[in-house]
Write a structure and sequence with these properties.
The protein is α/β, with parallel strands linked by helices. The protein has one domain: TIM Barrel, CATH 3.20.20.70. It is 35% helix and 16% strand. It is globular and about 60 Å long. It binds flavin mononucleotide. The site of flavin mononucleotide has 20 residues, from strand 4 and helix 10.
């Protein structure tokens, strides 16, 4: 049996050397509160490239200052940010990884001073700020900010852009009827709630020709919320707009009890992959090589995204290869200790 986890995967003209993706993870380490790359990021991301991860997606990076989750988030709202990203992209590429960046806006989940924005003036819960309902001008400005962010990501040399449409942040807030109560063309029926994401995708694609991923929360875990079936429709629309892969997560748009267990979100990836015939990524409590291989062998996803396991074990590709009985390339300097 061919081990699929270590087979290459190509989207457009970008080939990942294996199917292992480091999922975006906020490091909250931009200590000067200016969104800039720090030594932490240089070390953290480069280490996973040395560890042979195929694609590394840099954490949620804010397209506007008030689109940050916290003041320590990375940002890409200014040309001054480009050089820092250029540097980490080059460090990761030096070790054979492909590189991605997650472009994000926190919406009503921003924990910041000053005004925060959302489709409707409804707070996430009683402890969080009530956001301002976005005007049409706010919407247009935010779409433009995603476009500028994509332009800067291209200048920095990233191979992949992922739009953050999950976890209850701004785009997810527009998609879900739980957080979007607008009565204009951005609210109401599904195609209206989709309009904001649609405009973001078009804006990004006007300046970006490379692989484009969108991360979604395929389940709201709420009887009035969205389900994976709703996301088959959204994914079809995304595919029609030229999105290359859906990274399938869940939850976060409203408080909910979620039953988590190993691979608990893989079934949503499968639903979207089968329902839309678009490549997908599976994420969530994937920790072993066998588990990852089962997902790929059964065509439940095209890529496996790992987050916390890669914090514990930055050389997880080596760990998984040993478990699956295959040998993978080692950094030359580590050859004597890699087997
Ligand atoms: C420290 C940390 C930061 C995270 N930051 C992000 C983020 O920036 N963007 C995102 O889409 N998900 C983020 N997540 C969610 C992960 O990408 C992933 O979906 C989740 O942890 C489940 O995968 P896991 O079980 O492999 O950790 C974060 C998770 C962790 C643990």
């Amino acid at each position: 049996m061919n081990v699929k986890l270590f087979s290459p995967f190509t989207i457009k003209d970008v080939t990942f050397k294996n199917r292992i993706v480091m999922a975006p993870m906020c490091m909250y380490s931009s200590h000067n509160k200016d969104g800039h790359i720090q030594n932490w990021h240089r070390t953290h991301y480069t280490t996973r490239a040395v560890g042979q991860v195929g694609l590394i997606i840099v954490e949620a990076t804010a397209v506007t200052p008030q689109g940050r989750i916290s003041p320590q988030d990375l940002g890409i709202w200014s040309d001054d940010h480009i050089d820092g990203f250029k540097e980490i992209v080059s460090l990761m590429k030096e070790h054979g990884a492909k590189t991605g960046i997650q472009l994000a806006h926190a919406g009503r989940k921003a924990v910041l001073e000053g005004e925060i924005l959302a489709p409707s003036a409804i707070s996430f819960n009683e402890k969080m700020k009530t956001p301002k309902e976005m005007t049409k001008a706010d919407i247009a400005e935010t779409v433009e900010a995603f476009k500028k962010g994509a332009e800067r990501a291209a200048k920095a040399g990233f191979d992949v852009i992922e739009i953050h449409g999950a976890h209850g942040y701004l785009i997810n807030e527009f998609l879900s009827p739980l957080s979007n109560k607008r009565t204009d063309e951005y609210g109401g029926p599904a195609d209206h709630r989709y309009r904001f994401l649609s405009e973001v995708i078009d804006a990004v694609k006007s300046v970006w020709e490379g692989p484009l991923f969108v991360r979604v929360s395929a389940h709201d875990y709420n009887e009035d919320g969205l389900t994976p079936e709703d996301y088959i429709t959204f994914s079809q629309w995304m595919k029609d707009q030229g999105v290359d892969l859906i990274d399938v997560s869940s939850g976060g748009v409203a408080p909910a009890q979620i039953n988590v267990y190993p691979g608990y979100q893989v079934k949503y990836s499968e639903t979207i992959k089968n329902g839309t015939e678009i490549p997908t990524g599976a994420v969530g409590l994937i920790t072993t090589g066998k588990q990852a291989e089962e997902i790929l062998q059964n065509d439940r996803a095209d890529l496996v995204f790992l987050a916390r396991e890669l914090l514990r074990d930055p050389y997880w590709p080596r760990t998984a290869a040993k478990e699956l009985g295959v040998q993978i390339e080692a950094p030359k300097q580590y050859e004597r200790g890699w087997i």
